[in-house]
Design a protein that fits this description.
Chains A, B: Pathway: Amino-acid degradation; L-histidine degradation into L-glutamate; N-formimidoyl-L-glutamate from L-histidine: step 2/3. The structure is a homodimer. With about 550 residues, chain A is of the alpha/beta class. Helices cover about 40% and strands about 15% of the residues of chain A. In chain A, strands 3, 4, 5, 12, 13, 14, 15, 16 and 17 form a nine-stranded mixed beta sheet that branches. In chain A, strands 8-9-7-6-10-11 form a six-stranded parallel beta sheet, with helices on both faces. Chain A has a two-stranded antiparallel sheet with strand order 1-2. The structure holds nicotinamide-adenine-dinucleotide (2 copies). One nicotinamide-adenine-dinucleotide binds next to helix 4, strand 7 and helix 8 of chain A.
């Protein structure tokens, strides 16, 4: 068989219906690996994102993975240790083709310095969440996740929509640049403050921003006008947030929703109010101590302004960027009065087993994704969160790599969709198998006390049993790929991939895996005492699975 | 069905052939849990050993576990989080009945203080290795492990036997008290120095020690005489090691093998040479600082004497008790010139997939174990390490709880035995199913940089991917119970249990699981660069499972 081996910048996912492997399940995993690199940041170095999260230990490992996937049978199991293939063991046709443990390090040795040393020694990789598990599908996740958060804010506080609301945020960079479009898609009149014009221009070019100005009065006028007209808007103001926010407050303008996605590190990210971007960059070299002091002051000012809005009725939350911790270090004692987005807006979804589910058209044909889009619009009611997203995504999301879609679905819904898709693959309505996967940031699959599991109701933020159980369950119930990731000393996460290959026997496995995966997430949250999760567990019959036992 | 529920001190493992569960696999797991408690240290508190390692979160959890095991089907999976049953999910009849994650905590939160806090909050348990995985079978493991170490020393340095050799060690307490008998069983003339006569008397009573004296001249005479006569001996000298060892050196007596199993903690364990046991105990309250200083001095003297023997040709090794670290803290800069027992004597066995395999007669009938003993003597050559052990064990090991046997078997051998046993269960030669399990301290199932994985050839001591992969593989290949344990910030381990129920279909699963489990251990050591493991992986065909890949 002629395997088109491509490396580095050239890696492209296989497409079409011809197989290079002994079956579609193996082929699917191979295409996911290739797609991971096709979407990667620095594929030459196997780096997928964050400058360090890698898809394989090295190119030799990559070659051996490809050689293994193209020759292994479906009743075998490939064992992957931190991006290196270790062996192929006899398995079962209904259990994983690939099992992975990436980046796991014994606690006392898991700090950054020690982790880096083990990485330099070639013994581990930083796996990120999806990178080493071959599940990255490009930047669609950021837009969708940000949109989902804003929608959740709308549902919780504004009767279901941000239309006619003022959304204020900061940062228009790598990930933060998804905010203006996400805010607009969620219906809000969105103003994003960004100090660097270059960043704004890039987002204007990509359609993530409608317009830009560096005039505060102009910005305010357009922002308020859109609010009054209930007109969605994505407007960037080129200015410093530590100056703009207090000024808005002075003028008596209170946003309905306020958050922030600057990079608040006082040395590496945050531009102090007194300096231009260029000045800050120069000072980083010349007088880091001074830069640090200035940036700390500005971060404090920035957060104090947000807290001020909060006290005047605004919905305020931290958006995963450690603004509170930095501000507290800068002297804002009550920084943690503001809560985080996971805690407030994502956790209620996790309690229902909802999370960033995704599916990839292994054919490479966008039509297959559109077919799934239509199935979703048919299947789920028009006021289900996913329905409005699917309509928007179709218009706004450009495919990168293999066509793929992200959509937040919950317990029962994921398997429902997967069974429909499996049928459609069987009867040819979809041209080739579809791979289902999800971010590791999901209902039952992450333990990250500074983000995903911050401030759990029962204090179980750091309990890492949950993602491990999630992976063991997915393994026993028959996912095609299962991964457990250690994220330095900061977290543990778990991932899975399962392929709807159109085989009728696969249906049972899809049902079991795609119910169990969010199911254990619901139970994790029920165990922590969340009412929604307890209620959902009851509704789904999950809470009756353990008999009550005997007396107490 | 009438379930005899017993709690606390009363828990006894079910025996005989009547089932309380829907199948033997479930019944086996239930009996293992009960047997765990039957052998436990403080069953009233669910404590199995080490004062803190527990079998279940609390009695309510225990009751719910029992209720679940007695009602679940074999195609279901019970999910256990740190000793608490969380839910029962649809599974497959050929994958685990029980999956467990116990005591796993995110790295930065896994230190002792934080771990204890989470334990106090009722969110985790300290699982030990076998305690929370329902695999403890009493103290047989200590005797057998110590014996195996001494035998390995004999094979590596003395042509296969310690007969006619002087073995010197210290400590005759809880675990250390296995040393005199183990040394004697290994053929050596064994002298154990123990400062506390009470401890010695206890071991004389239990048959672990032949004789005791507090006269050094007498001890030396008997020790040397037994050596000269090639007569195995287990003699305890009541004295302080920090005084005895330098005195032996002064007299020019050099043991062939020297180690130590005192508890070298200068405050909680080690008795300084200047003090009696009673004085040391009193000083612990009255002047801990002084006790600490004295004990440190003695620990240093003790280790320096051992290093002196080493320089004069003795085989010296640390036996898992942190003597070197304590001595270094006391100023012995070159303490780590001496290596550890795992590194020197156990790792070569791990490289062959050999480790503390064990089997339990679920009938409760000792005859079933004797039948397995006979199968082993028939099946494995008489110079296989296990053969001499089985003969000795039959004579010296008293059963506690369900009759059980430990025996070190390697890759291929474990499955060979299990298939024979499964047949014997089927044809009634064995009266009821046999459960197979092992210590977590096994070839591929532990990452403990201070013990099991100390000083790995490639520096991979702290890489925790391996036990996790071990568990995922056992899960996908179909063990009946799989567990991943976090041991504070110090380690990660994995355990499995699988039942030979006599069903012909079980044979395939037994073969797959009991080859895969040590198989991944062999590959873990081959990956770290150990020649024996590389050679074994080749011999077993494990190294050819990954195709070489393409070019470099
Ligand atoms: N789901 C999540 O938790 C999530 C999602 C996205 C981003 N984040 C976090 O958000 C942060 C930003 O990520 P990024 O990739 O966009 O980083 P980035 O550095 O690319 O972007 C940050 C932007 O903030 C701008 N900025 C800095 N100081 C400013 C100031 N005083 N006023 C206005 N603008 C200022 C910078 O010019 C830059 O464009 C990170 O900490 C990231 O982890 C979290
Ligand atoms: N496989 C292993 O790694 C392994 C196996 C067994 C024990 N150990 C280690 O060995 C140590 C001892 O375990 P234990 O359960 O026997 O503890 P223990 O406290 O019950 O026994 C230690 C004994 O040492 C004696 N002792 C103290 N100071 C002495 C001195 N100066 N001279 C002579 N005797 C002295 C004490 O009186 C006591 O009886 C522990 O650190 C344990 O972890 C390791």
């Amino acid at each position: 068989m002629n395997i088109p081996v491509r490396r580095g910048k050239d890696v492209k996912a296989g497409r079409g219906t011809a197989l290079r492997c002994k079956g579609w399940r193996q082929e699917a995993i191979l295409r996911m690996l290739e797609n991971n690199l096709e979407n990667g940041e620095a594929p030459d170095n196997l780096v997928i994102y964050m400058s360090i999260a890698r898809a394989a230990r090295d190119w030799k490992s990559f070659d051996r993975i490809v050689a293994t996937l193209t020759t292994m049978r479906e009743d075998q199991t490939l064992v992957m240790q931190s991006g290196k293939p270790i062996g192929v063991f006899p398995g079962q046709a209904t259990t994983p083709l690939v099992i992975m443990a990436n980046g796991n390090i014994v606690g006392d040795w898991s700090g950054e310095e020690s982790r880096r040393k083990l990485d330099d020694m070639g013994l581990t990789v930083y796996p990120g969440m999806t990178a080493a598990a071959w599940q990255y599908i490009g930047s669609q996740g950021i837009l969708q996740g940000t949109y989902e958060t804003f929608m959740s804010v709308g549902r919780q506080h504004f009767g279901g929509t941000l239309a006619g609301r003022l959304l204020l945020t900061s940062g228009c960079g790598g990930m933060s640049g998804a905010q203006p479009l996400a805010g607009k898609l969620a219906g809000a009149s969105t103003l994003v403050v960004e100090v660097d014009q270059v960043r704004i221009d890039r987002r204007i070019a990509s359609g993530y921003c409608d317009a830009t100005t560096d005039d505060l009065d102009d910005a305010i006028a357009r922002w308020l006008a859109a609010r009054d007209a209930r007109q969605p808007l994505a407007l960037a103001l080129c200015a410093n947030s530590a100056a703009v926010l207090p000024e808005l407050a002075r003028r008596g303008i209170v946003p309905d929703v306020v958050t922030d996605q600057t990079y608040p590190d006082p040395l590496k990210g945050y531009v102090p109010a007194e300096l231009s971007v260029a000045q800050a960059r120069a000072m980083r070299q010349e007088d880091p101590a001074k830069l640090m002091a200035l940036a700390r002051q500005s971060v404090a000012t920035h957060l104090r302004a947000i807290l001020g809005f909060m006290d005047r009725g605004a919905i305020a939350f931290e958006y995963g960027n450690s603004l509170r911790a930095e501000a507290r270090a800068a002297g804002v004692e009550d920084a943690f009065r503001m809560r985080s987005f996971v805690d407030l807006y994502i956790r209620p979804l996790f309690c229902q087993g909802m999370g960033p589910f995704r599916w990839i058209a292994l054919s490479g044909d966008p039509q297959d994704i559109y077919t799934v889009d239509d199935m979703i619009l048919d299947t789920f009611s028009s006021n289900h969160p996913i329905s409005s997203w699917i309509r928007l995504a179709r218009e706004h999301v450009k495919f990168t790599g293999l066509p793929a879609r992200i959509g937040w679905l919950g317990y029962g819904e994921r398997s429902r969709l997967a069974l429909l898709v499996n049928e459609a693959v069987a009867n040819g309505k979809i041209s080739a198998p579809i791979a289902f996967t999800r971010d590791h940031l999901d209902s039952g699959s992450a333990a990250l006390p500074h983000r995903e599991t911050e401030n759990m109701k029962d204090g179980s933020d750091a309990i890492a049993d949950w993602p491990i159980l999630n992976a063991l369950l997915n393994c026993s119930s028959g996912a095609d790929l299962v991964a457990i990731h250690g994220l330095g000393g900061r977290g543990v996460s778990a991932g899975l991939t399962i392929v709807a290959d159109g085989n009728p026997d696969t249906a049972e496995r899809l049902k079991r895996v795609l119910d169990g995966d969010p199911g254990i997430g619901v139970l994790r949250h029920a165990d922590a005492g969340y009412d929604i999760a307890i209620e959902q567990a009851g509704r789904f019959g999950l809470s009756e699975t353990i008999p009550p036992g005997l007396s107490e």
